Structures are given as structure tokens and as C-alpha cells.
Amino acid sequence: MASPSDDRPSTVDDASLLSPDDLCGRSLLALVAAGHAMAARIRTLSDRVPLPYWAASRLPGPRQSGPGGSNEARQQQQRQRSKSTSSGEVGGLFNLFGPSRKAGSEGAPEDKTGGDELSDARKYAPFLFDFNYLHNPEEYEASLLARARDGPGEDGGKTAAGGGGGSNGGPAGLDLAQLEREFTVNQSKTVVEFYELFESVVGYHTDLSSFVDDLNRGYYIRHTVESVLSDEVGRRLVCEAVYLWGVLLITMEHYLPGPVRERLVISYHRMVGRDPSLGDISKIDSVVALCRSSAVRPPATAHRSSHKHPADEMRLFARFPLPSDFVRNVVGCLLSSDIYRRSTTAFPSIDHRSVALAGQASILYVVLYFDPHALREENAKMRSVVDRFFGDNWVVHVYGGLTADLGKEWGRYGAARAAMAGVLGEESVRVLHVGNAKLIGQCMAELRAYLTMGILTDGFVLDNRRDLLNCLRRCNIALRWRILHRRTADVALREIICAKQADGALTTDPKLEGDFAVSESHVISLLLLTSQLEMQLKDTFRQLLERREDIWSSCKTRTSGMMSDLAGYFGGGDGDGGSGSRAAALSKVDRHEGLSDWFAAMADEVNALSYESGEHVTVRGRRIQHCVQSLEEIELFDVVDRDVQARAFVGEARGMLLQMARAVGISSGVLDDMAWISDMSYGVECIRSYVDIIHARISKDPANVSLLQGFFLKLSTSSDGPIERPTSGTPGGAGVSDYYSSKLISFVRTVLSIVPVSVFAIIVQMSDIFERRLQPLPLRVPVEKLSSFAQLGERYKLSMMAHEVSIFANGILNMETTRIGGKEISPREFLEEGIRREMVSHVAELFNNLLQFDFAADAETVSSMNKHQAAAMRSLNSLGGRLEGLQRALVSVEDYISIPGLTMWHEETARILNYNVEQEVNKYLLKKVLDVDSRYQSSLAPIPRFPRTENEATCINFTGRVVSMLVKITDAQYATFSLERSGWYSADGSVVFGRNNIALLRKAIGVIGLTGIDRLLCYRILHELHRLVKFFRTNVTKQGMLLEQLRDELSPQWKTTANSVAIYHSGSKKTEMLMLPMLTCFRRVGQSQLLRRMIKYELQRCASKEAKLFQQKIEIRNAEILISELIKDELDVSEVKELSLLTNAIGLGDPINTIFMTTDPMEGLPVLLLFFVINYVPKLSYDPVSGSLAKVKSGYPIDGWPIVAGISTLLRQFHPSYTKAFLGYVGQFIRLSVQTYVSRKQEKKEGSSRLAADLKTAIVMMEQLCDLSNLPDSDLYEHVPQYLIEMCSEI
């Protein structure tokens, strides 16, 4: 049976209403097409509702329990995976913007953050208002401003205006204005899409009402409502147009619950109020009426179920009513006529009447909500509805896989409830259940007989066409009833229908006695076998249709030859009239002129039969029938009857003639009937609950994969109806086709996912052998040790696992390429995509679970930090080993399963690392990169998200934790950086983080991971610089007069004034409160820059070792582009961007020279930096062993090289004059310090030794600054003479 939407519109030749010149027909067809398109759009956008709207509505979003069947599939895959690491814990910080899934549900990244993400999303709830906002918007806005000013009170986040904003708010003091700005920047596009959808739904009602009014007013001249309803095509289209309006309301209520719709509309209203360029709110009243929540609050998970929950349809449909007379005419048309004639042709039996009218029943179910009086009061009409459409069923398919239980849906309406009472009685249901169980048993026996190898030949199909089609009808009827009614909402009825065998035994066929138990496994068996028979029959009939003329010609030639042979045979000749083989089979008999002439005339009669004679098929069939009857009569003739050879020839000729008749009788109508019979649009969502059973069967026997191709082809018919109208009625129908095709392909991936899950589980086991048990083979092996290195037992296990992998993969690899909907699917591609998906999930879990570091907050000591550093290095080493083993295992099986293993490995690991870096960077950005916009996220192999760890709550994922680990172990409080030794060292001289450690990090996360860490460090530096600039403009600028005064007193820089010491002393005291924030910034920036420097050196070393030629090419090309820039040649921007990525990958460039930001001049900055140096020089001393400035006091968080790198980075962001001025001020200070030191030493005053140490420290700091900034020595000597520096070094 086909759903109402599965009707194929008639061609222009068949119906004048659809002719290009008929405006009425074209308008009606466009209306129906638009309805299908909007229904698809609602479903598409329902998967993209931002999570904060679910949180504010107190409904769980799709990501909390998984979207429909795809979550079940992920659970099944999770059970199949071989777990090698422990799971993570709580969290999720910046992934707050809901699912960004594409067409299908597994286009969604796997969410493993649990309820924490929903909790984080609730911080947006205070400004996501429902329609209560419209009663008094000023009060709501004022309460929002007050809350942003004061923070949430004890109400937990409810507004003063009544709590329309939802529940839990953010923490006290949270800047709600900034939070709302961030939300608007990231979600405005999505909110606008939803509002445009609501406007288009309202527009559909407007267009439908206008069409009806135009018909009533005679706008279409010769068309009226009555004339259109009397036309076959018009009747179909009008009923569908009204039905689709109801479907839009039901679908929107189901997939976009009222509380969510209200908040989306108010968000749009407030966004447009602040920025009118975002859209237009002229139709806001109609949209509000459409989106207002109904009185019945939907169940918490209703939007994720494919079974419709009872809602207040009366209230919903009454908001946008249709003319009552028009609705009653449509209802009468549905009751009195069959609007889909093809369905009654496909199911001609009176016993199948309810199935033949199932599509019409779906339309009637929806349309009756526009006529509530009939549902409540008109008992006679409702009895006729039930008698005609629902006499043996009560679970109806509404649209697109959405089902409804009439027992619940109509239980609120008196007349409808009374009419359904006879059907819903337990005894009546038991009778239907038993009858269906017996029918399933009969169908299973017939299917096994027909699907026996060698049975379905062309001849068998032609001879038994009617029996085969009847078998298909029975199978599909049994399937439809069982699949739909297992979803009944009545618990008592469900216990009858879903009864289990008392002994718990698993049988192949349903139990046809006692409780007549039919399990889900029986349903799947019937479904798979039915789809297999349908696929084979369709292929056979399709081939027969293509070869009809060839079959006709071949049979005709052979029959004519046989008649000629028999004529020669009875004529006493040698039988030369036929083929040699046939003539040789006939020995000579006595001459019989009568029979010879008769067979010769029969040969002429057969030759006169023509396939292209222009005669009607019935005329040709009658002529063939006369020939067959003549042969039957001649066979009774005594001479022929006694001759075995002649009788055999006559029988064979008669069979050939019958073959000709059957071949010419085949038409395309057979395939059309089969399309209606095999339709499964009703179960496209229900079938998801059976995926686990299919997976279990394939796991038990991989050969079962061969049955899935027919199953997928059967499911593909479910999209024909929704696609047909939009494709024929509107230019945008391709989008609808893509949606339904992608949904089906997504389900196919879910079903087939068990194969790559099983394959990858074996690969993981192989990786364990490669990593832990298989010894690396040296270049030279002594003979006596050859047997130990052979490790035959381990290699035998690997070979057995590889064989098992090939068995699983063969099932998919042997499947043929299939077309589903408008897209072609390749099982080989599905296998590769599935393995990619499993590899991404497994590798992402390895990264997440092994890159977790246990650092105690604010309670670390040097010894504990050393322990954590050692544990972190062990984690990196373990991760590198596991990834290497997995890579070797994947490469070892790539030929068995026909995949590019090494290429896949590099592509997916790079994608995982880049995606996690991208998400970690989001915390520094106002405009977040959502999954839907990410170039690294994929719907085919989604990268999972994991919860945050308790110890690293501010880190989104493992990349942030790695950066945090590096920052903590290299903190100035515990370690000192040495540029000469290229690393951080503890006080006792042991390595904390050096060249070997950075190499270990590269082994664990690769070159892509290192470049990602470098990118995160860049954003960390940028963040700190912005904070410093903000601090300078808000705090330092207030002391602008002081800095200006100090600058004037110290000018000119080449001269030392008499009161300089007093100036320095006074300036240090007055700027002391500004020093600590600057120290923090310089420490963090400098530390990050030195880490970047180590990363660059490691990347350079790796590139020169493993890709020297490539490195040289990039360097040369980079130099060419720089030259082109100097001579003002035009450059290709895309090439420059690509080259920039490559230069980062090979470590080209100096991190210190990076320009992170552009900002307005900061007057007084060089003077402020001078006093920073004056303040912190006494806290440092030169360590000749490490060649760095070390802290004087142990445990003080200061280190020379990070401070120097931080100052250098800051100065690099400004004009070079800032650096020159800073060197001038410090040079002036050094010269004065030398004078002071000399005078004190001559006068033998106290403090000269301390002054000498500070003077030496200041000179070393300036030398290091010039060295790190790549400044020439002359820049320093310009302010501090070289002889003075040499003299100070000997102090």
C-alpha cells in the first residue's frame, strides 16, 4: 500500500487540469508541492534547534537521549567496540549551541557530555522568554538589566516579571548583556531561519484559503470547488492540499514543541528590535498565533518519538480554520470515492480493502480535525468511516513515518470513540492478532519455497505471476499490520499483540498455537525475506519488459521451425524445413498429406503473428490462443498421439506459444502494482526499533548482509511520494529530494554500521598485539634467535584476525551499487565511511582518556609537580605507542577490506586534532565556530565531544589540557628556562621540559597536533595582550599625567639629570600598584612564546629529517612570495593561505616576530616598562650555568627569559620607536646606576654590592632582549657604550 503522498501525479495527457495552460491546476500542484517541502523543512530544522531553547523550555534536547534511532545505533556500536581506555567524567563548557546536525541523525557528532551541556546551556535561559514577554516587554527588559547589574537572586534565575525566561541562571555577577550578545552573534542566523519557516507555514494557509476563495468567486472561470472535486486529479490534489495543511500543524507541534517555538519567536522579535536589518516583523501576529503553545504540554521526549502524542488538535486547528463547507465537501469526497485508483488495482481483493485505502485513511484522519463536529456528534458518519477504513486496524500512518493510535487520539471525541469501540475490544484485537500470526506463518513458508535457489527463473515467473504477486500482497499486509500495531499505546492491547512464548524459546517461525507469539525477530525475518523476493521479482520483470520483443521473436522462430519440421516429417521428407538438430530428432514415417499440409499451414499462421502489428494485445493473445487450441486438438489425432516424437514437438511448440502470450501480456503496470504493494512509507521510522535485531543477526552470521540490499530498496520507496510532488511542482524540489534521500541513506548507514564496528573491534585487538606483544624486528637477527623473533603464535593470531575481518567485509563488498531516492549509494564507500567513523571515535577516546592530567589546584609543591610531570610524560608515551599500534593494524588489513588505510589514518587524525583545536579556540572568540560551520566536523564520521575533567574545568578538550599541562610544569615557580640548553630545568638541574619531551609530545599528537598547540598558544598570547591593553586603558591612562611628567623629567634620554635617582625612586613608588598585572602578562606571554619557540625547533628538526626536499621547496616558495610582495606583484590569496599553513608545519619563522594585534598608540608605555624593569631587576640574578636570569628567592613566580620574551612580544606589537625609546630609558638608567655604583664604591657606602648585582642583571636583560628580538648590538650600544658593558661584566 502506498501512502497518500505516494500518489504519482498524472501526466498532462491524462488530465487536463495539469496542463501547462490551466492556472487552477498549476496553482493547486504548486500548493501541494510547497506543503511537502515545508514538512521536510520542519524536520530538517527541528534537528538544529539550539540546545539553550530546550533547556529554557525544560525539555531535554535531542542530544540528551539521541535522535530517534541513531542513538540506538550508537549504543549498539558502543556495545560492539573493544574498549581499551577508561571513560571521562563531567563537563562541557563552550559546546552550548545545540545540535548542528545535517540531513540525517548520524550527521550529528556523538555527544558524551551527558547532562552537563544542558546545565551549561541554562545560563542562556534568563533572556530566552516565552510569550509572556509580549504582555509587558518593558518590565521583562528592565528585570533583565537589573539582573545583569546585580546577579541572580534566590529565585534561581527567574525574572521579576514572572519567570518566562526559564530556570537556572548563570553565576552571580555574570554579565548577561555580554552573554546575550555572544548568543545573538552565534545564533541569529538560526533564529532567522526558524522565523522564516513559521512565516512560510502561515503563508501556506493564506495561499490555500485564497485558492478556495478564488474557486468560490469563479476566478478560475470554468473551475469551481465541485468541478475540481469531480475531476480525478483535482480531487486527489485538493484532498492532499487540505491534508498537508493539517500535517504541517501536526508535524510542527510534534517536532517543535510550543515552548520552544515561543522562545524562538521572541528571540527573533528582540533581535530585530535591536537590529532591523536582520528581518521583518510585519507578520508577527500571525506567527504568534501559529506558534503559541497549546494547553497540553507534550511529554518530555515527544519530539524524539516517531509515534504521535495526543495534543489539543481542536485548539491548534481552530487557529487557522478552513471554510466549513469546503472541508465537509472534502470529507464527503474521501468517504464516497477512491481518490487513489492505483491502490485498488494493486489490492483488488475485498479482504484487502483497508490496506488499499490506507493512504486515503491517513488523509481522512487529518482532515477530520478540521470538522470537529463530526468527531464529537455525528455517530453515523464516524461509523461509516470506521467500517470503511478502520475495521481491522487502529494505528494509522500520518505522514513521513509518524504514526498515531486512534484509540488515544479519538478517545476524547464521543462519536469517534463509540465508532472505534468494536475494533478496540480485547477479543476483536485477539482475533486480528491470531489471524495476522497465521498469515505470517503462511507467508514464511511460501517465501522460503520461492527463494530456493534456481526457482525464480523467467519461465517460472511468467507462469506463476499471479501467485507470486498474491504472495507479496499477503506478506506486505501481514508486515504492515504487525509493525504498526506493535506500537499501540494501549497497554492491554500491546500485551496481546507483543505476546512472548511462554517457554522463552527462540523459533524461526511464529508460534501458531496457544498465545500465537510473534516476536520482533519473526517480523525482521518476514521483512528481509519479503524484500528479497520483491527485489528479485522486480529485477526479473524489468528484464522481461526489456526483452519482451526478443522473447517473442525467439519463441516464434522456434515454434515456426517446429511446425515446418513436423510438416516435413509427415510429408515423408528429410525435415529440411527446420533446423538440423530438430530434423535429426525426427525419423521418417509414412507420408501423410493431410498432417503435412496442416503443420505447414500452422507454420504460416505462426509466422503471421507480429509483435509490432499494431493490434491490441488482447487480439494477439486471442490468435495465440487459437493456435494453442489447434495444437491441443491435433495432438488428439491418432497418428500424432501414437508418435512420441511428434507429440513431444507439439507440446514444446504449445509451450512456446504460451510463453509468447505471457511475454506480450507483461506491461509496466506490473511494476507499478509492485511499487504500491511493497510500499513501506508507514514503517520508515518504526523500523528503527528493529536495528539491534538486524545487528545481532549479522554479528552471528555475516552472510546475512546479502539480504539487506533488498531491504534497503524496499525502504527507498517510502520517499517516492514526498519527493514526487515537489519535483513536479516547484523548482526547489531538489532540496526535498535530498532531504528524504539523505534520511534513508543515513538509516542505511546505521544498519550497515555493525560491519565496520565489528571489523574495527578486531583491528583494535590486532593493534594490541602490534603494540605490546610483537617485538620489532632488527636489521640483523642471529640464527639462534630467529625462532624467538618469529613469534609464530602471535603472527598466527594476527592472520586469523585478518581472515575474520575479510569475512565481515565480504558481505558489504559483494553488494551492488544501489540507487536510493535521488542518490546512488556504494556499499564499498559505506564500509570505508563506517571504518572511518569507528576509527575517529576510538582515536578521539584515546586522546581524551590518556591526555588527562591530575594537577591539584593551588596546592602544588616542587616534588608533587615533578611527579605530575613524570606522569604526564608517561601518558604521552603510552598514547604514542597505542596510536602507532593502531596505525600498523589498520595498514595490515587495508588490502583485505579494500580501503586506503594509511591515507585514512592521516586524514582522520588530522581532522580530529584540528577540530579539537578549533573548539578549544572558541573560548577566546565572540563568534564561535559551531559544528555546522566547522570544516573539520562531518556527519559521516562525526568527531565526538567529551565532558570536561574536574581538574581542568576551563579546558574544552584534550588540546586545552595539553596546553594547560605545559604551562603548569614550566611555570616560573617550579622551573627556570635556559635558552642555551633549550628547555626548562628545576633548581637541582634536572630536566623539566626539554628537547626529548617535545619530541615525545610530537610522537603522541603528531605534527598536526604540535601546530594546533602552537595555535592555541597564539590565542593565549593574544588574550593576555588584549587584557594588558584593556588594563592600560582603564587603569594606567588615569595616571597619564604622572607618566607624562616622568617622561619629561627623564628627557632627553642621552643625558642623566642631577635628580634622576629621586625620579626613579618616586616613579617606582607611584607605579608600584601597576606592576603585578604587567608581571603576570609578561610571564604568561613569554612562557607561551618560549613554548612556541621549542615547538618551531622541533617541527624544523622533524621536517629536515623526514621531508628535507619538501622543507626546502616551501622555504624557496616563501622567499619568492616575499620578493613578489616587495616588488608589488599580485598574489594569489588562497596560495598564500595554504603556504602559511605549510610554513607553520615545517616550523618556519620566529615566534617572537609574530604580530598578534593592532592597536592605537599607548602613550607612556616605554616609561612604564622602564619602571617595570627597575622594580623586578632586584628579584633576578644571572646564573652562568643556565645562562639565564634566575629568581633570587626560591618559589617566587618570576623567571628571566619569559619576562624578556614577554616584553619583546609586547614591543613588537607597536612601532619600532617604542623599542628604541625603551632601550633609551633603560640605557639612561644603566648609565646612572654605573655612576651611582662608582660614587658609592669610592665613598665606601653600603649597598654597592647589591647595586652591582642589579646593574649586571639589567645589562644582561637588555642583551637578552636584543638577542631574542633579533636587534643588532648597535641598538644597545647607542644607549649603553660597549666599554661600559664590558666594564660592568667584570664588576
Automatic annotation (TrEMBL):
<feature type="compositionally biased region" description="Gly residues">
    <location>
        <begin position="159"/>
        <end position="172"/>
    </location>
</feature>
<dbReference type="GO" id="GO:0140285">
    <property type="term" value="P:endosome fission"/>
</dbReference>
<feature type="region of interest" description="Disordered">
    <location>
        <begin position="1"/>
        <end position="20"/>
    </location>
</feature>
<dbReference type="GO" id="GO:0071203">
    <property type="term" value="C:WASH complex"/>
</dbReference>
<dbReference type="GO" id="GO:0005768">
    <property type="term" value="C:endosome"/>
</dbReference>
<feature type="region of interest" description="Disordered">
    <location>
        <begin position="148"/>
        <end position="173"/>
    </location>
</feature>
<dbReference type="GO" id="GO:0007032">
    <property type="term" value="P:endosome organization"/>
</dbReference>
<dbReference type="GO" id="GO:0030041">
    <property type="term" value="P:actin filament polymerization"/>
</dbReference>
<feature type="compositionally biased region" description="Basic and acidic residues">
    <location>
        <begin position="1"/>
        <end position="11"/>
    </location>
</feature>
<comment type="similarity">
    <text>Belongs to the strumpellin family.</text>
</comment>
<feature type="compositionally biased region" description="Basic and acidic residues">
    <location>
        <begin position="148"/>
        <end position="157"/>
    </location>
</feature>
<protein>
    <recommendedName>
        <fullName>WASH complex subunit strumpellin</fullName>
    </recommendedName>
</protein>
<dbReference type="Pfam" id="PF10266">
    <property type="entry name" value="Strumpellin"/>
</dbReference>
<feature type="region of interest" description="Disordered">
    <location>
        <begin position="56"/>
        <end position="117"/>
    </location>
</feature>
<dbReference type="GO" id="GO:0051125">
    <property type="term" value="P:regulation of actin nucleation"/>
</dbReference>
<dbReference type="InterPro" id="IPR019393">
    <property type="entry name" value="WASH_strumpellin"/>
</dbReference>
